[in-house]
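User: Predict the full complex structure for these chains.
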Amino acid sequence: MSSGMVFDVQRASLHDGPGMRTTVFLKGCPLRCAWCHNPESQRHDAEISFDPGRCLACGDCAAACPQDRHRLVDGQHRYDRDGCTRCGKCAEACPSLALEPVGRTMSVAEVMAVVRQDLGFYRDSGGGLTLSGGEPAMQAQFAAALLAAAEAEGIDTAIETSGHAPWPAWELIRPHCRLFLFDVKAEADRHRELTGVPLEPILPICSGCTISAPGSGCACPTCPAGTMARRAGRRSPPCAPGCRASAASS
Amino acid sequence: MSWQQVLAQTRAYNAHRPAGHDVRPWLRVRAWREAAGQPEPSVRARAFAAVCAGIDCRILAGDRLVGSRSGFVREQLPDGVDGEAVAREHAARGQRDFWSGWDHTLADYPRLLAVGIGGLIAQAEAGLIWRSDAGERAFLAAAAIALRGFSAFIRRHAEACRGLGMASQADDLERIAEQPPETFAQAAQLVWLTHIAFVAEGRYANALGRLDQYLLPFYQRDLAAGRIDREQALDLLLHLWAHIEELGEVTNICIGGLTPQGADATNELSYLCLEATRLVQSPHTNLSARFHDGTPAEFHHACYACIRTGVGFPAIFNDHVLLPGLAEIGIPDEVARDYCMVGCIETMLAGRQPAWSDSRFNTPLCLLRALRSRPDSYEQLIARFTGEMATALAAHAAAVDRHLAERPAARLPDPFLSALTDDCLGRACDINDGGARFPRFHGIAIMGLATVADALAAVRKLVFDERAVCLDELIAALDADFAGREDLRQRLLNRAPKYGNGEAMVDGIAAWLVATTADLCLRHRLHDGGRFVAAVAANVQNISAGREVGATPDGRRAGTPLSDAASPHFGRDRQGPTAFLQSVATPDYHRALTGSVINMKFEPALFTGEAGERRFAAITRAFVRLRIPELQFNFTGDAVLLAARADPEAHADLVVRVSGFSAYFTRLDPAVQDDIIRRRAHA
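Assistant: Here is the predicted structure of the two-chain assembly.
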């Protein structure tokens, strides 16, 4: 697939793998973690975010909206999301970034044009491309195409994932991904409660992917050492013996 | 006495400088009166010698270096001296100033160390034997008087050392009073006392130049003879750095770079200078490190080890930017490769030029005038803006030149600095009268590069391309400082590209502005052959310049600071360090012969441990590769975080490590900000 839904592209990312990296956040996530710090990355579709703190109540959005979803009532901005087609015209008109599009469709070529800008930095720092999310494996074909494109240009590849995706997704991604950074969100007995999905199907994927990718590993709540190493951009070892999350898989 | 003790005493002295009277004006006035009727160069030289003979030689017992400014001040002037009358007479005789070549000097230290004061005196006297021109003879006689005065100054320090039982130092001082130094310690001592003599003359921001190059032969000779080891050499530099702290100004020292022959010049002393800077942590040892393609990786790492301490030094310079520019204006390669910095970042051909000077040019005022002429197209706006700048720069250059011309060398000769500048003694003329081998540079500091680039980008996109804003409406809003038009201000801020984010359109405008102003400056010459060169640097004058400028089309409010030097506008670079570097690498600075000041601000936590070292090396390598002229690094702490809370718009680019991730500080929830501030305060 040559295009996908991108939440954000962050250059010079320092905490998503070794070196200085460009992290491409893909939109859409099947998990609903209680602590999610990017809830607007959960839905796959493009959305419009509204920050009332930045709103000037200038009415430019109301004039631009073809569906008449924005109104000024007593000098206050009202945004009625029912019937909003998320066409983005209001965000284009908004002068103060109170309304902003969240997520945009980007082609592999468009993403790579951004990624390529920092080639020299990858070489000097040992960095590369990291896919993150959302859950990047939700758009497995797009993710695989991005990783393959980077690989073809000699750019190091990594993926940061919850691991929650069916195995065929990983079959697409695995050949082009050098480093897997699994983020195991919670211990087995609380995973469903805290994230909305069970841990059991994730663990075999975690071991299946990391086994063939040297340096890969998982960060999990019961392995602080592993988490620290991974966050510091070092290649962390797989979970330590006795880890309760990985123990559940054996 | 350890360097730490010297530093502690120096800091204590600076914190409680005793009140008193500066004896130097009185010493000069007295010498002038006694020398009345003699040629002006001799009068000035005698005054210099009188200061050398009259100020106190204050020495800390056991110090490894001598030379201090504390002896300029005495509790009381001698009985019967009327301080106010002295001050009036002193002022009436006049003195050079910044624009006429007084401050920001750099002596020819390699030659001084090679031939000694005696060698320079002999050169002056040899000229006196065969030259018959009265002016030339007056100059040479004055130079010899000044040099003898300086020599006597060194002997006075020798006597003082002898009195304190510092016999070996007394011997060293007696030697360098006339003969060239033999050891590393003697060479460093001679350089420092020369520097102190300049300070005694009342000069400011004088540089020490390429210390790691001219002291190297002495260091190597001492090492070979077993007279010194690495630690002892470092200890001496630490003492020197502690003495620089006493002056409390900007004393530039340049390390690394290329040799005159074009080989890598980085050497053991370059590393020792970095180590001294790291250990002393003085804001006054303004260390500049020159980089080029062949700079060893070890030097990148050593610079990082110093920078990460937060001291802000060294600033790093790119040989591949400045050298082609110097070649284009006719400086021979072997001289150009010996460049270094004076003051903050000002380019200087060490020991071969009159003193540096510079002035401020308020570029955004030209843009606002061009805009008010209501151009029909972006191209017309650019043409009129260029015309405004050309006119204003011509007037500016003329004013500077008039200032210099009103201070001829005949009235304000400068014998001591001349004697230490190549090739005044050979040519028998004053440094400001054609004695220096190469013409002076006067830097024109171009204000608000990013303010102008952002403003032009906004006008181009919103007014001329998209027709979203009409020009009359924009001008009315600017005149009203956006009163009632916050929507328009927000549109200008948010809906047009900003310099510093790797966006081609606005980066291209910045490149155009640098190239245009560099060329416009080079068009003008001073009457003595000196060059006007563009300097995209501001110190903190972007603040005062901003007070003179009304609201600008980038969304900046009237009277607020302009963008700083060659950096992106505060808080508008939001795409991280690589996009930042991509932007600042876009303008070609080689014709702006004093390059630029580009501030990069980091949280120190981003650069810890081995990973931090690798990251930082990626930045300094990119700096060399992308031909960025200069970078300096700010590692900020709690105070800045608190300021960021108070004024988020100005701190929007501050990156902090939060927990498992990093974020822009001002975009975090206030509770998270509180948390980070609290956590850091405990740490």
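Residues 28 and 47 of chain B are 5 Å apart (CA to CA).
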